[in-house]
Amino acid sequence: MKLYITKLILGALFLLSTFISAQNLSKNQFQVKGNCEMCKERIETTAIKAGAKSARYSIDSQTLTLETAGNISPENILKKVAEAGHDNEKFKASTETYEKLPGCCHYERDLQPTITTEKHDNHSKNENEFYVKGNCGSCKARIEKAAKDSGADFAEWDTEKQTVTLKFDPVKTSADKILKKIADVGHDNEKFKSTNAVYKNLPDCCLYDREIPFGEANPKVHFEEGAKHDDDKDAEDHSQHRNSEKNIEQVNILGSKAATSINKKEAGLVFNIDKKELLKAACCNLSESFETNATVDVSFSNAVTGTKQLKMLGLDQKYTSLTRELLPEIRGLASAYGLNFIPGRWIESIQLTKGGSTVTNGYESITGQINTEFLKNAEKPETSLNLFADFNGRAEANITSVSPINEKWSQTFLLHGNGTFGDTDMNDDSFLDRPKGTQLNAAYLLNFNDLEKSGFGSHFGINFIKDERTAGQIGFDKKISQDKQPLYGVGIDISRFQVWNKTGYVFAGKPYQSLGWMNQYTFHQQDSFFGLRNYSGKQQTYYSNLVFESILGNTNHKYKAGASFMYDGYDETYLTNNFKRNEIVPGVFAEYTLTGLKYTLVAGARADFHNLAGTQFTPRLNFKYDFTPQTILRLSAGRGFRTANVFAESQQYFASNRNIQILQNGGDIYGLKPEIAWNYGASLQQEFKLFGRKSTIMADFFRTDFQDQVLVDLDRSPQQLTFYNLDGKSFANSFQTQFDFTPFKNFDVRLAYKYYDVQADYLDGRREVPFMAKHRGFVNLAYSTNKNNNGGFWSFDTTMNVVGKQRLPNNSTNPAEFQLPMYSESYAVLNAQISRNFNKKLRAYLGGENLTSYYQKNAIMDFRNPFGNYFDGGMVYAPIMKANFYVGLDVTF
């Protein structure tokens, strides 16, 4: 009996102790960042060692579930987890600890914890102190005002510590509400991030570095008067502040977003060109947007029509994929004049990729891709007017209006008109140096963005262009038929219509997983004549691209997969010959991205089932290795193919009396086979300090090998233009080195040298491809003054291009007076511009092109007899106009 009672008492005590123990345990769940099983093991082991009774980490939900005893604080455990390298909702790991994690454990650091484990400059935060990014006194005034407007009783932002100290009544407001308001006015903080549009709209002096982790020193800080400076020179670099009770105005500018930068995160060599870069030159259209860029070569291609063409990596524009909003843009029948259809003032940014681009954007890219983004981002309505005129009868006007409709919808109106009315003949050959005529160009964009809530976003656009040009001899009347007047004339009338939509969906709870669908319809019609030679063409294109993106296990392993469809309907008439064809190209693709601690690998492939060119397999590879954050190596290799539009792409030779001959080779496109090429590249980027400021040296080498090519042979006879497929080798070697540095504040220098070796096996042997200089030099200097109280400043920009000698087509069978030398002479072209920003809303500029007035004196062969056998306006290797000056005005409402 006693034994039974003893067992009963012991059992009751055991149950009681278990109950008490359970009462002392608490179970909590916290957000913790991680990627893989290694992360899971590290997080759980750290939590147990820190005193947790149990710890279970879920990779899918990114949560850590803890069971702790009453005397163990979950915050202490989470602090240890952060010290092991994992950000969580309470603490943030130090950058040094995070970087030491294995590559597979490098999660995306988008979680904004309330506390950081780091201490900077011997200070740490208290519970009423929050990290807020900013640069100067204007930032301070804006941050503190936003805090008080949202209910704070006291707000003080510390420039050096990059923190705001708040005091508020929790019944009336909250820290989250205050910090949200601060983000709304443009300042990232540890809770909320400002939108890109609001951030970009800040004054230049307030554009803080968004990549610096919270708590680290901000090198762009503008200290208040009387604050500590590194030395006397730095003290002179900072402007005085004007103080009042609620406002502090910063007058000086110490740093701003680079007008052109290399995307260090991309595996490929990608240059981001901001609209600030486009303001350095006249930039009336896309063909003039690269005058201050060393990568792209811009040249006149015809002395009669005055057209310009781009070249990249030593090859013609047709081998570069030219897109708008990542949709196919300048291709097919638009190849000759399409660069004139994108006004410079419409452009928000340009992404320029050297070498093979991603397979998700199509199969046509061989030497690279140039993508143009239109203006479409604004937090508040903004309308701008641009007026431009040069001293030789060219004028244009641009109106751009970007405005939000509500929180989710925004719209953009784009309107452009230009006209060339003067008779420009600087070399006195009786031919216009550039065509006369007009262009009307209008577009409307509608944007929907609800990615944060529903996960949906959509972009709709519509564009209409009417372009009419007349060229040839002065006095030619386009209204009179060519056979009833003795003068030589050229008429080019183009109508173009486009409508497109891009819609995307981000899966709920999976920010790394998305689905996007792009569709576009294009109608393009050209009616033209070149003397007695007629050419007309009509093209209808439908393009569709469906892309799914997700991860394999964690964000170190990303992939894209999808399908595309391209339809091109062509109907061309040259003289009396009609050429019709329909190209139907369904395709599939996949791309895998592997991200490690110091490397990124992007491997992709696509298969396209072309009804005329057969099945084409297109693999592409890009690899980036960061020896250090300042030393980056990139390697690339890839294949591309395209179908040649021999008439549309060779219109620069139509203003001549060359007969066209196509040597058919059994293909289904003009009797020719498609063009196929491999491109290989390597680049090395090195950043360092020079004059105490960031400098960059970039060197790259690319080689393009053609497996098949449609050669344009100008050497067989000066009276003949011959097309045929390659039988042998054709290659282009391109080497470029570029040096960017800032010798003193506000003064940027860009130097570049390029070497090209471009050769092909023609029917009569291997020769250098004509009109390609082996050696090119480039110098760009840009200086701006400090901003005044009204945001006004001066800008000075100048660019010099030095072009070496070029091989010219063989015309030795012509009479001596109509022969060109084997090589052209070298020359230099100097452009310059001065602009004055009176304030944020008014800007005026004055500039000059080809200030050295070098021009090709024999640009048109036998110009006195344009209907004779030796007339040729396509042998252009240099500018055809002397110095030309222009003025412009930008007004923002």
Automatic annotation (TrEMBL):
InterPro entries named among the record's database cross-references: Beta-barrel_TonB (IPR000531), Beta-barrel_TonB_sf (IPR036942), HMA_dom (IPR006121), HMA_dom_sf (IPR036163), Plug_dom_sf (IPR037066), TonB-dep_rcpt-like (IPR039426)
Q: Where in the cell is it found?
A: Cell outer membrane
Q: How does it sit in the membrane?
A: Multi-pass membrane protein
What span is annotated as the signal peptide, if there is one?
1-22
Checking Pfam families in the record gives: HMA, TonB_dep_Rec_b-barrel
Q: Which residues form the HMA domain?
A: 125-190
PROSITE patterns the record matches: HMA_2 (PS50846)
Q: Which Gene3D superfamilies match?
A: 3.30.70.100, TonB-dependent receptor, beta-barrel domain (2.40.170.20), TonB-dependent receptor, plug domain (2.170.130.10)
Q: Which UniProt keywords apply?
A: Cell outer membrane, Membrane, Receptor, Signal, TonB box, Transmembrane, Transmembrane beta strand, Transport
- Protein name, as recorded: TonB-dependent receptor
| Source organism | Chryseobacterium formosus
Q: What is the lineage of its organism?
A: Bacteria, Pseudomonadati, Bacteroidota, Flavobacteriia, Flavobacteriales
